[in-house]
Design a protein that fits this description.
The chain is an alpha+beta fold. Helices cover 15% and strands 22% of the residues. It contains 1 helix and 4 strands; from the N terminus they run βαβββ. Strands 2-1-3-4 form a 4-stranded mixed beta sheet, with helices on one face.
């Protein structure tokens, strides 16, 4: 299963755009987690948020499978499903 970790302010347009796109590309049983930069969420493996930060002052998404995550993504159009073979 994949998880999209979106780092940014949940009320900002760029964060919402990334989270909305992630919900479209992930399967229904996969998760989209929005977390403020530098925060940890109860029940979420801290390894998913460690070292994850906004880039260039913009909300940033990381698609993760297990503890392996994509490079930072700031443009919603670049969010695509992870290769299942990866």
């Amino acid at each position: 299963l994949s998880v999209a970790v979106v780092v940014g302010d949940a009320a900002s347009d760029d964060t919402r755009a990334l989270a909305d796109r992630a919900r479209l590309v992930l399967a229904p049983e996969e998760a989209v987690v929005v977390v403020p930069e530098g925060s940890e969420l109860a029940g979420l493996d801290p390894a998913w948020t460690k070292g994850r930060e906004r880039r260039d002052g913009r909300a940033t998404a990381y698609l993760c499978r297990g503890l392996h995550c994509s490079l930072p993504i700031m443009d919603p159009s670049e969010l695509v499903p992870l290769d299942p073979a990866a």
